[in-house]
UniProtKB/TrEMBL annotation:
SUPFAM superfamilies listed in its UniProt record: C-type lectin-like, Immunoglobulin
Membership in a protein family: Belongs to the HAPLN family.
Keywords per UniProt: Disulfide bond, Extracellular matrix, Hyaluronic acid, Immunoglobulin domain, Repeat, Secreted
Protein name: Uncharacterized protein
Main location: secreted
Domain Ig-like: 46-185
Cystine residue pairs: 239-260, 313-382, 338-359
Source species of the chain: Mola mola (Ocean sunfish)
Subcellular location: Secreted, Extracellular space, Extracellular matrix
PROSITE patterns linked: IG_LIKE (PS50835), LINK_1 (PS01241), LINK_2 (PS50963)
Domain of life: Eukaryota
Domain (Link): residue spans on this chain: 193-288, 293-384
Gene3D superfamilies: Immunoglobulins, Mannose-Binding Protein A, subunit A
Length: 395
């Protein structure tokens, strides 16, 4: 019979009242720790020295404490199958995360899983969800919209429902087992569209807070630099500078010229840097995603002024569409209609996916006639929420 020597590292607090059977206390103390030396009997094999350092960190719930054994000789791994997840506004999303051990344990272990979130525009991390065993707690705006999937051992994926525009950002999955702590980060992005927006009084009339409110009023949020850069790569060209979510002012140029990005300079996203949020005035770049619902053009027998247009949509159980909804319908549902109509902000616009003669410029987009007097007569774009959610996401 061969002796296997095992070292136990046990805290003075909330630990076993006596050493395990066949173990002898050596009596060596280092700060708050006691070192125990254990001799056990095993089958005939060459003598093996095992350093299985275990930490007692809590005790049983019965006496108001809990006990967790942490084996430092086993390595904890945390990983994700995706570095980024794409989803749509109003729909669900699953942010993958899994953990495992090397070597594996013969039975599952209770670990602490914590999900935190950093907004796409930057800022501090905030807690989303914390789970330990069967107990789960959610926080803030995520309360009631998130849960841990747990489909298989080691599955710590975060499931979100009813996604909002502000849910984009970096999600961090942290797994804690005793003294071991590993984490992985995954970006959540909404497939969306960036659109420039001006105040009804014209160019450069919005502070940062005013720009933020303008986007929210149109079913959108302030675009991030990453979103604006992607829009520029897809062809967005706009010569007026606008606020972004991080407080910078920038604008995308695909065809530079003297008064628009500089003659002879390369295309790109031009930046004015950070501006004073309350003092300076610019336009804004908003971001919106697909949505639950449908935007459609309505024109009764006679065209309508703005007040009549609102009433016409309401009589059909709908509401007058917002600018963000029209852009999302153009981008994701392929809305194409060569007649201008009222929108909720008092502007008149129309969406084109198939440019053609007598229907605006040669590029697809949402055309605008600005903010005409509310007495003018036009059709109207209405929005109606649907119970089903069938927008396809193309990655």
């Amino acid at each position: 019979m061969t002796n296997i020597r095992i070292f136990w590292l046990i805290s003075d607090h909330h630990c076993l009242p006596t050493p395990p059977p066949l173990c002898t206390q050596v009596g060596v103390r280092a700060h708050r720790w006691r070192l125990l030396f254990c001799r056990a009997t095993a089958s005939p094999k060459p003598e093996v020295n095992l350093l299985l350092t275990r930490v007692c960190r809590a005790s049983l719930a019965i006496n108001g404490a809990r006990r967790i054994l942490h084996i430092l000789g086993v390595k904890l791994h945390v990983d994700s199958a995706q570095s980024s997840v794409f989803a749509a506004k109003g729909g669900p999303a699953t942010v993958p995360c899994r953990f495992w051990y090397e070597p594996e344990f013969s039975s599952p272990r209770e670990v602490r899983v914590k999900w935190s979130w950093q907004p796409a525009a930057g800022g501090h991390e905030t807690d989303v969800l914390v789970a330990f065993g069967s107990r789960t707690r959610t926080f803030g705006e995520f309360r009631g919209r998130v849960e841990l999937r747990q489909d298989f051992p080691g599955d710590a994926a975060l499931v979100l429902t009813e996604l909002q525009l502000n849910d984009t950002g970096r999600y961090r999955c942290e797994v804690v087992d005793g003294l071991e702590d590993k984490s992985i980060s995954v970006n959540l992005e909404l497939q969306g569209v960036v659109f420039p927006y001006q105040h009804p009084r014209g160019r450069y009339h919005m502070s940062f807070l005013g720009a933020q409110q303008a986007c929210e009023d149109q079913g959108a949020t302030l675009a991030t630099f990453t979103q604006l850069l992607q829009a520029w790569k897809e062809g967005l060209h706009w010569c007026n500078a606008g606020w972004l979510a991080d407080g910078t002012v920038q604008y995308p140029i695909t065809q530079p010229r003297t008064s628009c990005g500089g003659h002879g300079l390369a295309p790109g996203v031009r930046s004015y840097g950070r501006r004073q949020l309350r003092l300076h005035r610019y336009d804004v770049f908003c971001f919106t995603s697909s949505f639950r619902g449908r935007v459609y053009y309505l024109q009764p027998s006679d065209k309508m002024n703005l007040t009549e247009a609102r009433q016409a949509c309401q009589e059909l159980g709908a509401e007058i569409a917002r600018v963000g909804q029209l852009f999302a319908a153009w981008k994701f549902a392929g809305l194409d209609h060569c007649e201008a109509g009222w929108l909720a902000d008092g502007s008149v616009r129309y969406p084109i996916t198939r440019p053609r003669t007598n229907c605006g410029p040669a590029e697809p987009g949402v055309r605008t006639f600005g903010f005409p007097p509310p007495q003018q007569k036009h059709g109207v774009y209405c929005y109606r929420a649907d119970l089903t959610f069938s927008i396809k996401i193309n990655i």
